[in-house]
């Protein structure tokens, strides 16, 4: 099976919470604080997802 190669395919392959946080941060331009408030989660949890997600996206996209 081929690995996802487009950003949309890669995002679709992520767990829902990670996909939502990364989409809100990178595609909607929201801050970690805004996302944390919106999702009722600690800001440090959002920061952790963004940091890990950035590395995962880079790896999955071959960057």
TrEMBL record:
MF terms (GO), sorted A to Z: DNA binding; sigma factor activity
GO biological process, one term: DNA-templated transcription initiation
Span of the signal peptide: none
SUPFAM superfamilies for this protein: Sigma3 and sigma4 domains of RNA polymerase sigma factors
One Pfam family cited in the UniProt record for this chain: Sigma70_r4_2
RNA polymerase sigma factor 70 region 4 type domain location: 7-57
Name recorded for this polypeptide: Unannotated protein
Organism: freshwater metagenome
């Amino acid at each position: 099976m081929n690995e996802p190669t487009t950003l949309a395919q890669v995002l679709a392959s992520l767990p829902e919470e990670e996909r939502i946080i990364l989409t809100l941060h990178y595609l909607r331009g929201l801050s970690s604080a805004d996302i944390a408030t919106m999702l009722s989660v600690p800001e440090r949890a959002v920061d952790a997802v963004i940091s890990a997600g950035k590395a995962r996206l880079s790896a999955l996209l071959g960057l």
